[in-house]
Design a protein that fits this description.
The chain is an alpha/beta fold. Helix content is about 40%, strand content about 15%. It contains twelve helices and nine strands.
């Protein structure tokens, strides 16, 4: 498979920032908001307790904003979160164009009229040019896609679905509450509405072999997935996984193993899928393991260097022409 214009010598995989610039013509950053949603995997609709690895304080910087403003109405909460976050983000990232990122828990898990009010409140804030909505694939009834399609006619809208694994046995182990077929259905129905779709995938589940992890690359490449967040399995305090790990520790990937795995994965991933994230982390006060002295840029550099050492790049071993 030949290299495409999406992969450069500067970075041997197609980064999300590169995709954003090609899509909008300039830098656009995200501002994270917490609208106070919950999740059907926590409230008993699907299950209780949530996914084994889930503690949203470990993943969502907006969770503090939500607690700070919880006495306010949801729309006021969103407006204030954005207003308070934007000045620092503008200085740091040198942009005045932002997507409101609804991140914590399942951000389509409410009646349509509630969702409309919350989304519109975010869009009414100065500097917000669109929405990025994180949710579960079992929380997107057609009426909600109708709303997102409607909003997509006036601004940019993307939806991110938690896939986490393509293997149903792993999803059951993780207490996800849905199967891979549910994810595939949600991606296809959403993309059919003209909405960009992102996926989240976790590498390193102890119930998966390396080969089973790598099978996700061609599987996701065959779907209309625009961008992908990759996370290493990491353990956060206050989760069922932390309890399991304390009672019966299991082996986690070390940093070098993970870099090698990422390089193998990217070689098998379509070069048209933008890579939004390469690993997951959590605040030091919450992180149990593994503890790696890296950040996003360092991880990207490590992966680029490994692909460069191999004289390889994203998609070089893809089995299909995408």
């Amino acid at each position: 498979m030949e290299r495409t214009e999406t992969v450069s010598d500067r970075l041997r995989f197609f980064s999300y920032n590169q995709w954003i610039r090609s899509r909008f013509g300039s830098r656009v950053h995200r501002v994270t908001v917490d609208a106070g949603f919950t999740c059907p995997n926590r409230d008993g609709t699907v299950a209780v307790g949530g996914c084994v690895y889930c503690n949203n304080d470990g993943f969502s910087p907006a969770s503090h904003n939500y607690r700070t403003h919880k006495s306010l109405a949801p729309s006021q909460r969103i407006g204030r979160q954005i207003a308070e976050a934007l000045p620092a983000l503008k200085r740091r990232f040198h942009t005045d164009r932002f997507l409101a990122y609804f991140q914590a828990y399942s951000n389509t898990y409410a009646p349509v009229d509630v969702l409309r009010r919350l989304y519109l409140e975010a869009l009414d804030q100065p500097g917000i040019i669109g929405l990025a909505i994180g949710t579960r694939p079992d929380c997107v009834e057609e009426s909600k896609l109708d709303l997102l399609e409607e909003l997509g006619r006036r601004c940019y809208v993307s939806v991110e679905y938690g896939c986490e694994s393509i293997h149903d046995e792993t999803l059951q182990w993780a207490n996800r509450g849905h199967d891979f077929a549910c994810f595939v259905d949600a991606v296809q129905r959403t993309a059919a509405r003209g909405i960009d779709v992102g996926a989240h995938l976790i590498l390193g589940f102890p119930v998966e072999t390396r080969d089973r992890m790598l099978e996700a690359a061609p599987a996701l490449s065959s779907l209309p997935v625009r961008f992908l967040k990759l996370h290493n399995l990491h353990i956060v305090k206050g989760t069922a996984l932390a309890h399991r790990y304390r009672i019966e520790p299991f082996r986690l990937l070390d940093l070098e193993e993970y870099v090698q795995l990422l390089a193998d994965f990217l070689e098998r991933l379509s070069p048209r899928v933008a890579v939004q994230r390469l690993y997951g982390d959590a605040p030091d006060a919450l992180l149990v393991a593994p503890r790696w002295d890296v950040d996003g840029p360092i991880m990207a550099q490590r992966v680029h260097q490994e692909l460069e050492r191999r004289e390889s790049y994203q998609g070089s071993k893809a089995l299909l022409e995408f």
